[in-house]
Structures are given as C-alpha cells and as structure tokens.
Amino acid sequence: MKLLKYCPNCGKESLHWDGEKKWSCTHCDFRLYNNVAGAVAVVIRHDDEIYFTKRNRDPKKGKLDLAGGFVDPKESAEETCKRELFEELQLDINISNLKYLGSLPNVYQYKEIDYNTIDLFYEYTVSEKFEVKLELSEISETQWIPLNTINLDDLAFDSQKRFFEDYLKSI
Predict the structure, then answer these.
(1) Whole domain around residue 54: which residue ranges?
(2) Are residues 94 and 127 both part of a single domain?
(3) What is the pTM (predicted TM-score) of this model?
(4) Which pLDDT does position 111 carry in this prediction?
(5) What is the CATH number for 116?
(6) Average pLDDT for residues 20-34, to the nearest whole number?
(7) Which of 71, 91, 119, 159 has its CA 20 to 30 A from that of 79?
(8) Total domains, the chain
C-alpha cells in the first residue's frame, strides 16, 4: 500500500501507518482512520442466468463484475443499488424488490491504496432478459451467463468469488 508521509494537520513528514487502519502523526498526535467503506453488488437474475458486467478500468480491468458500487454519504445500501443500477445500466428498479443476501469483507486496491470494504450482496430478479446501451466508461460489455457456467476465476473480486461459491451451492 502506498503510504502517506506528510501530516495533513501540521505538515511534517511524521505520519506513521499502523499496518491495519490508522495513520497517526508522531509530531502533533493527529489521527486519520482508514475505516471500512460500504459497497453493494447486485445479482441481477432471470431464471437460471445472471447479468454480469465486464470492467473497463482498473482495478481488475477485463474481469467480470456485478453491477454496484460504493455507498455515498447519507445513502442507504438499497438506495445505492438503485442509483448504481441506473448509472451503470440505465435500469430503474423498485427498491422493494431487492433481496438482501449477505455481506463479505473485501480489499479494493486503487492507485496503490488498499480500501477495506464490506460488500453487501443483493438479488434483483427480472421477468425478462434485457440488454443495455453502454457508455463505455466503467463497463466494456455486459452478458447473461447461465449459473452452471459461471467461472469463478473470471470474476474481478475475491468477495464475489466467495459469494458465488456459496450462492451456487444454495441453488
């Protein structure tokens, strides 16, 4: 992980990383916590198929991903699902149809910083398959994948691999 060196409070090169979640200044006793960030991942399901996106940026460019993203301040996880599905897929969902499935810890590595996340998994069932017209920013393509052909090695994030190991056994 890229370490911060300079204290944002006193400006001295005296910031120390504890190796887990906190920077502290040895000069002025300032503390900066790297707390866990909330993120959502939505399993969009139609019968026995899941709708995956393919990442168009790092981290994990080219790998399969579930639609979702980070929770914004003052936003519920369910509101995040609604916002992210609309931003990424132009899919306007009814929050009451989301089914919470569970959570797993993850590490999101971005520009040499490790962000510890708690990934909240939801399922959203659709009655018909759909396709979206993508603006190629975060996503390079989308695809419906049958449950019995999901290759865990193709998934971008460890939390999603662990999630699908259990999810596929429960079906």
Answers:
(1) 37-170
(2) yes
(3) 0.88
(4) 79
(5) 3.90.79.10
(6) 92
(7) 159
(8) 2
